[in-house]
Design the sequence.
């Protein structure tokens, strides 16, 4: 008995392979992978004037209190601060209307919390201003306030040389 090797041509092999590949196209995968994209956390850009003609822009998450110690390159006693109006990523997805973006920015309030010394707390207590350990003195600003100056005594944001502990924008 003679053993014969079947003779296949390249054309016959490629047509068999293509037929088998076509049948794979109709198969349904057992596992379907879903790519879940986390919604972007809304942010606001706050500009800090730290002196020497240097302004630092910080993108801050909304509704989260941030310590000034955790902000890189921003000292605890900036000279001025402002909500920066140019932040195209602030608006909701697909929001290209400039007026809607500005309207949204105008509603944001940033609150800064200065560091109050124990002796100042005692003095305020003697003057009848209640400040227990849980209460914090704070001041706020909005987009329409423009640059708020922490050094000017006639401004409501005057810090009298105090450093800032934290900031929160909502």
Sequence:
């Amino acid at each position: 008995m003679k053993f014969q090797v079947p003779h296949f041509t390249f054309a016959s092999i490629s047509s068999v392979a293509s037929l088998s590949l076509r049948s794979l196209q109709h198969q349904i995968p057992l596992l379907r992978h879903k790519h879940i994209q986390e919604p972007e956390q809304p942010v606001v850009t706050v500009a800090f004037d730290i002196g020497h003609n240097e302004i630092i822009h910080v993108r801050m998450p909304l509704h989260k209190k941030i310590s000034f110690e955790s902000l890189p390159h921003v000292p605890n006693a900036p000279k001025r601060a402002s909500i920066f109006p140019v932040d195209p990523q602030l608006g909701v997805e697909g929001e290209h209307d400039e007026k809607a973006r500005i309207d949204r920015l105008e509603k944001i309030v940033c609150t800064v919390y200065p560091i109050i010394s124990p002796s100042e707390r005692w003095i305020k207590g003697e003057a009848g201003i209640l400040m227990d350990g849980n209460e914090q003195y704070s001041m706020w600003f909005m987009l329409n306030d423009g640059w708020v100056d922490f050094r000017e005594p006639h401004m409501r944001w005057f810090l009298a040389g105090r450093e800032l502990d934290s900031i929160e924008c909502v």
Notes: Residues 33-39, 88-95 have pLDDT under 50 and may be disordered.
